[in-house]
Amino acid sequence: MITQDKDKYAEELNHSINYLENLGYNNIKADIEGYETPKSYLKKGSKIEVTPDIVAEKEGRKHIFDLSLKSQKPRLLKSKWLFLNTLSQIKSYRFRLITKRGHYKFTNETIDDINLDKVKLLKI
């Protein structure tokens, strides 16, 4: 989810955090009030800041989660996902996308556009 959509989808983010807690994830950091904010990355040469929506641990391995919800700026979302996927591969993390009903088609089309076929989807 991009920064412009944070307020619009705050309820979905809270629901996703609860879902992950029920699956056994711990040490959850989220880009929402009430949780510690995950580490942000600044794009070199611009003022664009990339922050994962949720970072959690399970069985000693770090997982990066991003909400996949319809957005007015899909290009910015695609670049965020490509960056987070590359970062997770370099650091041996796991990158997952969380989506919900009504957003599956948008998510699948976006994944196909940027060839992120190996990314697993959590459907809530």
Largest sheet: 5 strands, mixed
- Give the count of helical stretches: 3
State which percent range the strand residues make up: 25-35%
Question: Termini, distance in Å?
Answer: 15 Å
What structural class is derived from the secondary structure elements?
alpha/beta
Low-confidence stretches: none
Q: How many beta-strand runs? A: 7
Question: Which bin fits the share of residues in helices?
Answer: 25-40%
Rg, Cα atoms, Å: 13 Å
Give the helices and strands as they follow along the chain: HEEEEEHEHE
Calculate the mean pLDDT score and round it: 93
Describe this structure in words.
The chain has three helices and seven strands. The longest helix has 17 residues, at 74-90. It is an alpha/beta fold. The chain has a domain at 1-67. The chain has a five-stranded mixed sheet with strand order 1-4-5-6-7, with helices on both faces. It has a two-stranded antiparallel ribbon with strand order 2-3. Helix 3 (104-113) links the parallel strand 6 (94-99) and strand 7. The chain is globular, with a radius of gyration of 13 Å.
Quick rundown:
With 124 residues, the chain is an alpha/beta fold.
